[in-house]
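Appendix B, example 12.
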Amino acid sequence: MYESHWRLKHKPFENCSDPRFYFPGESHQAALLKLRYAVENRRGGAVLAGPSGTGKTLLVHMLRTALAPCFAPVVHVVFPQMPTDQLLAYAAGELTGDAAAHHPVDLHQTIRRIEQFLAANTQRGQHAVLVVDEAHLLDEGETWEALRLLMNFENGGQPGLTLVIAGQPAVLPLLDRFPQLDERLGVKCLLRPFTEAETAAYVVHRLQIAGGDPAIFQPAALAALQRLAQGIPRRINRLCDLALLIGYAEQRTTLAADHLESIHDELVAVVPE
């Protein structure tokens, strides 16, 4: 709606996992490098933790695009809050590409199917990656134990897959309850919100990728944005998108701090996260 007014080729602040808009913030780049290390060195597991809206899902997509073809398949479970047999059946179906395997059967049969696939996958020179997202929602000991068992499948002395557990920081004390699993997660990454400088660079980066003028947001507006959104990318996106929309409606040529503050107070602050 507002793209032509701001001379944009695309909407710059969509909350979607588009690798084109990935911004290499310090903690994000560090996490990506650590995850690549875990996968490329065929480690058994890794943890990616961060507050809601900090970009964990986009980082998983960036990991997928950064890996060589031999690291396959890469399976991303985005809703793991299901009974253990269903979760493993879903993982088995995604790993093997067999739609029939999505239907839960005996848990031991599912685990055996995964074991056989990983052995064959390793013989083909490939290494699988299983990402369990929103893992802070998992509270069943049986599920965590099943995930630990997946890390036992080794071929030639190396794990058949790398398990990446992603979730909000609440996942970390959850893992403390399962030390046998926690001690095998050799890589732990924690995403933090952007600093003020990173927030400003993030907004400029997104505007440039979308083909727009990086000066649309005045310097004071960027400073206000950091205070209002607290460095959380999802909040930044929402507030910037609304600012562009309202700015278009008011026929503004740039966006000032008071404009963002007004939009935040009237349209954002009353909306729960």
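Residues 45 and 163 are 4 Å apart (CA to CA). The chain has twelve helices and seven strands.
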